[in-house]
Design a protein that fits this description.
This protein has 3 helices and no strands. It has 99 residues and is mostly helical. It has one domain. Helix 1 packs antiparallel against helix 2. The longest helix has 28 residues. The radius of gyration is 17 Å and the shape is elongated. The termini are far apart.
Length: 99
């Protein structure tokens, strides 16, 4: 594997994990269920972004199978994020509103 590609993948993983961490902190700070789904979705996308190379180079799987698994993980991550944006979550009154 080329060193440039390894560096690019490491940067991608770093950014993905930072986004995941921030979304999880948002979930914890505001008890926001959609933010938990954003965190989980980005975690799937982050893992999927580097998994193809690992499966192909390290485990020796075919490029087709490696790509299929990677694409599946990224798609699951996107679906989870989409659910966080459009899912049905119970309405909670804001602190400044009276029920």
């Amino acid at each position: 594997m080329h060193i440039e590609l390894v560096i690019a993948k490491l940067v991608t993983v770093g950014l993905g994990l930072l986004i995941t961490k921030q979304a999880y902190k948002g979930y914890r700070a505001y008890d926001s269920e959609p933010m938990l789904y954003v965190a989980v979705g980005f975690l799937f996308i982050t893992v999927g972004s580097v998994l193809e190379g690992i499966l192909f180079d390290v485990l020796g799987l075919s490029i087709f199978l490696s790509g299929t698994i990677q694409t599946g993980l990224v798609a699951v991550g996107m679906l989870v994020i989409l659910y966080s944006l459009h899912g049905q979550f119970p309405d909670r009154p804001r602190e400044d509103e009276t029920p």
